[in-house]
Structure formats: structure tokens, C-alpha cells
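Sequence dictates fold. Next comes a concrete instance:
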Amino acid sequence: MNDQRLDIIEILIPLFYLGLIFSLAYFKKQKIASQENEGFFFIGLSYKLLFALFFGGYYFLYVKGGDSVAYWEGANVLSNLFFESPVNYVDCLFSNPSPELLGQHFNAVTGYPPGWLYRENEAWLVCKLISILSIITFKSYAAMSIIVCYFSFLGSWRLMELVGKMRKHARGNLIFAFIFIPSLCFWCAGLSKDTMVYIFVVYLLIRLFKIIAGEKIKLINLIQVLVCSYIIYHTRSFVLIAIAAAAIMAYGARITKRFESNSLAKVGFRFLYLSLGIFTVYIFFTSQIITNIMKEASVIQQDFINNEIYTGQKYEIGAIDVSPMGLISAFPSSAVFGIYRPFIQESLSPSLIFNGLESLLLIFLTFRFFVSFNILVKIQKIRKNEFLMFALIFVLIIGFISGLTSVLFGVLVRVRAIILPFIYLLLTVRGSKTPVEIPLVKDN
């Protein structure tokens, strides 16, 4: 009888949160959905939720383990710690993992987190974040997935509406890019580090683009930027570097618009803008952070290649030369790997099949972009628009780093998932005359 009651509770908790999410979404829709897009709001939410549950089913039923399950188990251990000792729970949240603290915080009653996860600061931070969800959902994996998926969807929708105001894309392309790309929904809507990174990236970009557009910086906005930046840096640091470099170029594109009527000033500023871009690339390739990332990646790469315990399809891109010239010479091939692979013949598995189909689509769109008769118009729009300039730099940096360091296709598709909307929008920018832009913020 007790087992039957437990089974019923395990079913009712996800259903309760599913109903709560749709209720909240009903009111949220009225605030963030434009009239032209509102018809896709609940369709998009349902679509992402299905992929989040599919993601969970893949790890529980097919993989029968994996990092998603490990994050859930780690969060549940923290939930146990909260109910046993809230003081120790708070102390654990704000301290780095160590062998000493492991014995102080955890015991046979709370259970112990997975060892590999506890030793990795980035992964343990993810557990800390989702432990709050474990507490309020009574450790329900499905309910936690539903909540995480909801925040992923809201961030995607808000960024889509913001970009839509620039009127550089057809509505269908915009909605598909942010809401319906299958592998993005699979890897960035369930219980995983990739989802947490994606959520904080989109919320950071929403705020950054409003600031670039001239929004008055308020304390609450600054706190949002700092919190998002902190979490991104401590979960996947190179993503924050890519955002910073791309944001600088985007701001330059924004300022250039102010000199359209003054040819001399426009040429001068473009020269300064180009010089700044070259300097930024130089700093990027010579920075200590990038050097450390590449050195660590070189070791991991060789481990992945030579160690038979790492399963899944692998690819080789050659030894990593961490010198500036070595990284620059590796840039073209690495970026192509990071953006377009795995190809369809390399993707015949449940977790990669969507990526193979998307690779075909991206190759087709790339070909169509470069053979179109109005390619110069499209390039000019990318160069002049702050979002598209951001997207170009962001895609190239993330594509380069993910292609160079991932080695396993299973790792590659997860790391680069966050750039898929930006790749798609770069390749589908309008070539014809576009409607008048709607200001992202009101003029001060």
C-alpha cells in the first residue's frame, strides 16, 4: 500500500508542476508575447517540454545513467542536507568542494554526491543551482526538468521577441531558430549543465542588447548582468569570453550607425572599429585564460583519443599548438568542425540524429547564402546590425573552441548547441528591403 501511495505521489508532483507552469505561462504570455507571435507561444512551450521529457527518458531508459542523472542525484543529496542541517546546506552552497568539507557536510543519512561531480567545481555548481528545485519538488526528476525547461523557453522567447524588433528575418525563421531547432531543444531544455549555461546566456544577452541599444543602466539590471556572468564564467568560462568579445564588436556596429550621414567620420570610425577588432582577436588568442583552456583541452583531447573507456564516435583535428600562430592556423578547420559536424553519416544514433539532419540544413543554407544574387546586401546588413555582428563573432569563437577541443561528437553537439539559433539567423537574414526597425528601448 505504501509503495502504491509513493507511486501516485511521484506521478502527481510532475502533473502539479506541469499545471502550475502552464498557468504561469498564461499570464506571462500577455506580457512578453507580441500579437504576431502569440499563436506559437503554447505550441513552443509544449514542444520544448516534450524534448525535455525525451531527454530525461533517453538518460534513464537508454543510457541508464549519465551526467543528467548524476546532476539529479547530486542535487538530491544537497536537498537531504538542507532538511538535515540548513546551516550546513548554506555553507555548502557558498564554499568550494574539498575532501574536508565532504566529510563535514555529508553522511550516511544525507548520502554522498557522485565523486567525479563533486570534484569538478563547474559540475558541482550546477548541482547547487538545481538543488533548490529538488527541495521544492520533493526530488522529482520530471518536475525539476519541467521547471528548468520553462525558464529555458521563457529566455528563448524573450530573446526572440527582442531580435524580432530589428526586422531582419522572416517571422518563421525567427521562431524556428529560437523555439523549434530540435537539437537545441534536446540538449538545452532538460536537466543538464548545457541547459543551465543556455538559460543564463540568453538572459544575459537580453540585458546586454538593451544596454547596447541605449537602455539606462539600473541597479537591478546590473545585478542581473553580474549574476549571469558569474554563473557562466564558473560553468563554461570560454562562453563568457566569447560573449564579451562579440559584445564589443556589436557595440561598435551600433555606434557606426550614428555616423551614416558623415562619410569622413564613418570611414574613420570603421578604421577604428576594424583596428579594435584585430586587437580583440590578438588579445583573445594570447590571453592566459585561452592558453590555459587550450593546454587543458590538449591533455583531455589525447585522453579521449587514446583511452578506450570513452565511448562514442570520435574525430581528430590534430595536435593542439597553443601558440597564437598555432591557434590562428587551426581556426578555419576547427570552426568548420564546430559549426557543421557531425555530418549525417556520422549521426546514426538516437542522441545525434537531429544534429545530422541539422548539418544538412546548415550546409544547404550556407550554399544558398553565398550563391544568392543579393549576397552583398546580406553582408552589409550583418555588418551594420549589432545583433548580427554579435552573432557572427559569437558563432566563430564558440565554433572554433568547441571544434578544436571536443574530440567526441557527443561532447561537440552539446557545447555548440547554444550557437545554433545564431548560425541559422546569420544564414537566413533578409536579402530584400526590410521593414522599419522597432526601437529596442525608448530614446532617453
The chain has a mean pLDDT of 84. The chain has 21 helices and no strands. The chain has two domains: 2-32+40-154, 236-444. Residues 2-32 form the longest helix (31 residues).
